[in-house]
Design brief:
It is a single chain. The protein is mainly β. The protein has helices at residues 3-15, 86-92; strands at 26-30, 36-43, 47-53, 56-62, 71-77, 81-82, 105-115, 120-129, 132-147, 154-165, 178-192. The protein has an eight-stranded antiparallel barrel. Strand 7 and strand 8 form a beta hairpin. The N and C termini lie far apart (48 Å). Mean pLDDT is 90; it is low at 3-22.
Length: 194
Protein backbone atom coordinates (compact mmCIF):
# COMPACT_ATOMS: atom_id res chain seq x y z
CA UNK A 1 0.00 0.00 0.00
CA UNK A 2 1.49 3.33 -0.97
CA UNK A 3 2.16 6.05 1.59
CA UNK A 4 -0.56 8.46 0.38
CA UNK A 5 -3.27 5.77 0.48
CA UNK A 6 -2.27 4.85 4.05
CA UNK A 7 -2.55 8.49 5.11
CA UNK A 8 -5.99 8.82 3.49
CA UNK A 9 -7.25 5.68 5.23
CA UNK A 10 -5.91 6.83 8.61
CA UNK A 11 -7.55 10.23 8.19
CA UNK A 12 -10.87 8.61 7.28
CA UNK A 13 -10.71 6.32 10.32
CA UNK A 14 -9.78 9.17 12.63
CA UNK A 15 -12.83 11.22 11.63
CA UNK A 16 -15.37 8.35 11.40
CA UNK A 17 -18.01 8.17 14.14
CA UNK A 18 -17.40 5.52 16.77
CA UNK A 19 -20.35 3.20 17.46
CA UNK A 20 -23.92 3.63 16.26
CA UNK A 21 -25.37 7.10 15.83
CA UNK A 22 -27.58 8.17 18.70
CA UNK A 23 -31.06 9.57 18.24
CA UNK A 24 -31.50 13.29 18.64
CA UNK A 25 -33.70 14.58 21.48
CA UNK A 26 -37.21 15.46 20.36
CA UNK A 27 -39.28 18.34 21.71
CA UNK A 28 -42.90 17.51 22.48
CA UNK A 29 -45.75 19.92 23.21
CA UNK A 30 -48.02 18.74 26.02
CA UNK A 31 -51.39 17.78 24.53
CA UNK A 32 -54.05 19.09 26.95
CA UNK A 33 -56.76 16.97 25.33
CA UNK A 34 -54.98 13.73 26.29
CA UNK A 35 -53.28 14.88 29.50
CA UNK A 36 -54.56 15.64 32.98
CA UNK A 37 -53.58 16.95 36.41
CA UNK A 38 -55.49 15.77 39.47
CA UNK A 39 -54.85 16.39 43.18
CA UNK A 40 -56.24 14.94 46.39
CA UNK A 41 -56.40 16.63 49.82
CA UNK A 42 -57.89 15.31 53.04
CA UNK A 43 -61.10 16.83 54.45
CA UNK A 44 -61.69 16.39 58.21
CA UNK A 45 -60.20 12.90 58.08
CA UNK A 46 -63.36 11.64 56.36
CA UNK A 47 -62.59 11.89 52.67
CA UNK A 48 -60.15 13.20 50.09
CA UNK A 49 -61.42 16.14 48.06
CA UNK A 50 -60.52 15.79 44.39
CA UNK A 51 -59.32 18.79 42.40
CA UNK A 52 -58.44 19.10 38.72
CA UNK A 53 -56.56 21.64 36.63
CA UNK A 54 -58.46 22.36 33.43
CA UNK A 55 -55.98 24.70 31.72
CA UNK A 56 -52.30 23.87 31.44
CA UNK A 57 -49.55 23.93 28.85
CA UNK A 58 -45.90 23.06 28.48
CA UNK A 59 -43.23 21.20 26.61
CA UNK A 60 -40.60 18.56 27.19
CA UNK A 61 -37.52 17.44 25.32
CA UNK A 62 -36.89 13.72 25.51
CA UNK A 63 -34.54 11.08 24.10
CA UNK A 64 -35.46 7.62 25.38
CA UNK A 65 -31.82 6.53 24.99
CA UNK A 66 -30.59 9.42 27.17
CA UNK A 67 -33.48 10.46 29.46
CA UNK A 68 -31.11 12.15 31.92
CA UNK A 69 -30.64 14.93 29.34
CA UNK A 70 -34.38 15.70 29.21
CA UNK A 71 -35.96 19.12 29.68
CA UNK A 72 -39.41 20.00 31.00
CA UNK A 73 -41.41 23.12 31.68
CA UNK A 74 -45.12 23.33 32.42
CA UNK A 75 -47.65 25.94 33.50
CA UNK A 76 -51.11 25.66 35.11
CA UNK A 77 -53.69 28.47 35.14
CA UNK A 78 -54.80 28.83 38.77
CA UNK A 79 -58.19 30.14 37.65
CA UNK A 80 -58.84 26.78 35.97
CA UNK A 81 -58.53 24.72 39.17
CA UNK A 82 -61.84 23.06 40.05
CA UNK A 83 -62.93 21.01 43.07
CA UNK A 84 -66.52 20.63 41.82
CA UNK A 85 -67.87 23.23 44.26
CA UNK A 86 -68.29 26.89 43.26
CA UNK A 87 -67.89 28.31 46.79
CA UNK A 88 -64.76 26.29 47.54
CA UNK A 89 -63.30 27.09 44.12
CA UNK A 90 -63.82 30.78 44.81
CA UNK A 91 -62.18 30.43 48.24
CA UNK A 92 -59.05 28.73 46.94
CA UNK A 93 -58.49 31.53 44.42
CA UNK A 94 -58.15 33.97 47.35
CA UNK A 95 -55.16 35.31 49.27
CA UNK A 96 -55.21 32.51 51.90
CA UNK A 97 -54.73 29.89 49.23
CA UNK A 98 -53.43 30.29 45.66
CA UNK A 99 -53.76 34.09 45.57
CA UNK A 100 -54.68 33.90 41.90
CA UNK A 101 -54.91 37.67 41.39
CA UNK A 102 -51.25 38.19 42.24
CA UNK A 103 -49.97 34.79 41.08
CA UNK A 104 -52.14 33.56 38.19
CA UNK A 105 -49.88 30.66 37.21
CA UNK A 106 -48.32 27.60 38.83
CA UNK A 107 -45.07 26.61 37.11
CA UNK A 108 -42.79 23.59 37.15
CA UNK A 109 -39.32 23.45 35.61
CA UNK A 110 -37.45 20.15 35.62
CA UNK A 111 -33.85 20.34 36.86
CA UNK A 112 -32.79 16.69 37.29
CA UNK A 113 -33.90 13.58 35.41
CA UNK A 114 -32.95 10.17 36.81
CA UNK A 115 -33.62 6.80 35.16
CA UNK A 116 -34.04 3.81 37.50
CA UNK A 117 -35.23 1.25 34.91
CA UNK A 118 -36.44 1.13 31.31
CA UNK A 119 -39.85 2.44 32.37
CA UNK A 120 -39.27 4.15 35.74
CA UNK A 121 -37.47 7.24 36.96
CA UNK A 122 -37.78 10.54 38.77
CA UNK A 123 -37.94 14.17 37.78
CA UNK A 124 -36.87 16.76 40.33
CA UNK A 125 -37.74 20.33 39.57
CA UNK A 126 -38.69 23.76 40.85
CA UNK A 127 -42.40 24.09 41.59
CA UNK A 128 -43.68 27.65 42.05
CA UNK A 129 -47.06 28.20 43.73
CA UNK A 130 -48.31 31.57 45.01
CA UNK A 131 -44.87 33.11 44.48
CA UNK A 132 -43.02 30.45 46.51
CA UNK A 133 -40.57 28.09 44.77
CA UNK A 134 -39.66 24.71 46.27
CA UNK A 135 -38.03 21.57 44.91
CA UNK A 136 -40.46 18.70 44.24
CA UNK A 137 -39.69 15.19 42.97
CA UNK A 138 -42.09 13.33 40.69
CA UNK A 139 -42.08 9.53 40.45
CA UNK A 140 -42.42 8.91 36.72
CA UNK A 141 -43.45 5.97 34.54
CA UNK A 142 -42.55 6.12 30.84
CA UNK A 143 -45.62 4.70 29.07
CA UNK A 144 -44.18 4.66 25.59
CA UNK A 145 -43.31 6.51 22.41
CA UNK A 146 -44.52 5.94 18.87
CA UNK A 147 -46.65 7.12 15.98
CA UNK A 148 -50.24 8.16 16.43
CA UNK A 149 -52.21 5.77 14.14
CA UNK A 150 -54.73 8.48 13.19
CA UNK A 151 -52.44 11.25 11.97
CA UNK A 152 -48.91 9.79 12.01
CA UNK A 153 -47.59 12.29 14.55
CA UNK A 154 -44.92 11.17 17.02
CA UNK A 155 -46.27 10.86 20.56
CA UNK A 156 -44.71 10.14 23.96
CA UNK A 157 -46.54 9.53 27.21
CA UNK A 158 -45.77 9.54 30.92
CA UNK A 159 -47.59 9.02 34.23
CA UNK A 160 -46.32 10.76 37.37
CA UNK A 161 -47.16 11.06 41.06
CA UNK A 162 -45.87 13.27 43.86
CA UNK A 163 -46.66 14.32 47.40
CA UNK A 164 -46.10 17.83 48.71
CA UNK A 165 -47.10 20.00 51.65
CA UNK A 166 -49.23 23.03 50.90
CA UNK A 167 -47.82 24.77 53.97
CA UNK A 168 -44.40 24.78 52.23
CA UNK A 169 -45.98 27.23 49.77
CA UNK A 170 -47.53 29.45 52.45
CA UNK A 171 -51.01 27.91 52.28
CA UNK A 172 -51.84 27.23 55.93
CA UNK A 173 -55.59 28.06 55.96
CA UNK A 174 -57.73 25.65 57.97
CA UNK A 175 -54.87 23.39 59.10
CA UNK A 176 -55.28 20.71 60.37
CA UNK A 177 -58.99 20.37 59.49
CA UNK A 178 -58.00 20.38 55.84
CA UNK A 179 -54.91 18.27 55.26
CA UNK A 180 -51.44 19.62 54.69
CA UNK A 181 -50.31 16.83 52.39
CA UNK A 182 -51.39 17.03 48.76
CA UNK A 183 -51.14 14.04 46.45
CA UNK A 184 -50.67 14.80 42.75
CA UNK A 185 -51.42 12.53 39.81
CA UNK A 186 -50.29 13.67 36.37
CA UNK A 187 -50.91 12.05 33.00
CA UNK A 188 -48.96 13.58 30.13
CA UNK A 189 -49.11 12.90 26.42
CA UNK A 190 -46.85 14.97 24.22
CA UNK A 191 -46.96 15.56 20.48
CA UNK A 192 -43.59 15.81 18.74
CA UNK A 193 -42.80 18.94 16.81
CA UNK A 194 -42.39 18.37 13.10
Amino acid sequence: MNYRLKLALLAALATAPIGPATAQPITFDIDPVHSGIVFFINHLGFSNVIGVAKEFSGEFTFDKDAPEASKLQAKVKVSSISTNNAQRDSDIQGADWFNATEFPDITFVGTKFTKSSDKQGTITGDLTIAGVTKPVTLDVTFNGQGKNPWDGSLEAGFSATAKLKRSDFGMTANLPLIGDEVTLRIETEGRGRS
